[in-house]
Amino acid sequence: MAKAVQSHVKSLNWGHLVQLQDKKVKYMNLKGAFVDEHTVRGKSKKGETTILTAENIVLATGGRPKYPLDVPGAELGISSDDIFWLKDSPGKTLVIGASYVALECAGFLTGVGLNTSVMVRSIPLRGFDQQMAHLVTDYMASYGTRIFWKCKPIKIEKLDSGKLQVIWKNLESDIEERESFDTVMWAVGRAPETDSLCLDKAGVQINHKTGKVIVGANEETTASHIYAIGDIAEGRPELTPTAIKAGKLLAHRLFGKSTELMDYDNVATTVFTPLEYGCVGLTEEEAIGRHGEDSVEVYHAYYKPLEFAVAERDATQCYIKMVCLREGDQRILGLHFIGPNAGEVIQGFALGIKCNATYSQLASTVGIHPTCAEDVNKLNITKRSGQDATVTGC
Fold first, then answer.
1. What is the structure's pLDDT at 282?
2. pLDDT in tens, 320-359
3. What is the helix (H) or strand (E) element at residue 158, kind and residue range?
4. What distance in Å separates the CA atoms of residue 261 and residue 266, rounded to the nearest whole number?
5. How far, in Å, CA of 29 to CA of 147, rounded?
6. Which of 275, 336, 357, 370 is the most exposed place for a label (fewest CB within 10 A)?
7. What is the DSSP letter of 358?
8. Is 145 helix (H, G, I), strand (E, B) or coil?
9. How far apart are the first and last CA of the chain?
10. What is the SS3 string spanning 166-215?
């Protein structure tokens, strides 16, 4: 399986190189750093130097997984970048972190039959709707993933057996605990690749707390001819399709006659955990924060996918939530969906929300039976009513 994944990644890289060549783009495998605001020095693996000058420069170096600096033995762990490049099965694995990367990897490892645990310091899926996030972790726990809540790693030691002993503190009880694992995987966030770029020589400012490049609406940095897109740009979603779209629009503005800017509002995304979580727009917490609790209406439903019903699987965590303005036609502010194929479901609804769809418009749409998506069209119970939100036959 690992070989198949590696082959797929290599084929993608090769495909990109071929497309660049076809478009007459010169690809140079060099590590770059600024000399001045229009000059970049590139260094090859052999140490050979190439000097490049340009009228416009685009920074798109992305990010890499973080390793905690305050945990002795942290270097004994691996990151999500390493998981499919291991020569042997990771065996009993502890995933430290609760980001989508952490939960996706833990769900996958559990799914292939490995003893997998997740250590969560504070909350799961920070930045996502927290009711939905906890439904995701509830399903993972029922699926077989152990979750250590409110725990912080203190130290990792390599035992004579070759196993890794993890020592952590339970932040609620203040008790120190320990357990041995075959593999420890860090998933505590990603750091932007900006440290080695010598950005100060080009007049490009960064947020020193995050290391990310400060950009305007047109992706322009504090140096007017230098742009930043993707994960290194401050305040942008760390999503590949978002970066690709922003890059295309930037190219059209630089070399075409376009003035269209990237719209970062209502970007849909999905967390590919064993039970997928797709969302677009505001979380319930964000909507209440912006508009006030009295101005927000939340429609919700617990539903049972047909494939769960036939196989008699537990559907306790299959849940839909639509966050709307309470007044008028009730414009939809956010849609959150947990269930099979959530990514496929949320993509279509993202267009409607982008077009300022309202609850009344959605309610007038006929669903496709017997899909999970049709349960979005049938939403009619509000949280405010206190009624049972379990979907019935009618």
1. 98
2. 999 999 999 999 999 999 999 999 999 999 999 999 999 9
3. strand 151-158
4. 14
5. 41
6. 370
7. B
8. coil
9. 44
10. EEEEECCCCCEEEEEECEEEECCCEEECCHHHCHHHHCCCEECCCCEECC
What does the pLDDT read at residue 394?
A: 55
19-50 per-position pLDDT tens digit: 999 999 999 999 999 999 999 999 999 999 99
pLDDT for the residue numbered 392: 77
Other Cβ atoms less than 10 A from the Cβ of 369: the count is: 7
Beta strand 164-170 with 151-158: parallel, antiparallel or unpaired?
Answer: antiparallel
Please spell the DSSP secondary structure of 91-128, one letter per residue.
Answer: -SEEEE--SHHHHHHHHHHHHTT--EEEE-SS-SSTTS
H or E stretch including 50?
A: strand 49-53
Which is the catalytic residue, given 134, 291, 336, 369? 369
- Burial of 213 per CB tally in 10 Å (0-12, 13-18, 19+): buried
Low-confidence ranges of the chain (pLDDT < 70): 393-394
Sign of CA dihedral 361, 367, 372, 378: positive
369 assigned to active site: yes
State how far the Cα of 171 lies from the Cα of 175, in Å rounded to an integer: 8
**What pLDDT is stored for residue 393 in this prediction?**
67
Q: Which domains does the chain have, with CATH numbers?
A: 74-190 (3.50.50.60), 269-377 (3.30.390.30)
Q: What is the pTM of this model?
A: 0.94
In the chain, DSSP finds a helix count (H) and a strand count (E) of: 9, 22
Residues with Cβ within 8 Å of residue 70, at least 6 apart in sequence:
none
Q: At which residue do the structure tokens 């009730």 appear?
A: 330
- Integer angstrom CA distances of residue 22 from 9, 25, 357: 20, 8, 41
3-state secondary structure of 44: coil
**310 half-sphere exposure, CB direction, 13 A CA radius:** 4
Q: How far apart are CA 291 and CA 276, in angstroms?
A: 28
Residue 316 has φ and ψ, to the nearest 5°, of -55, -35
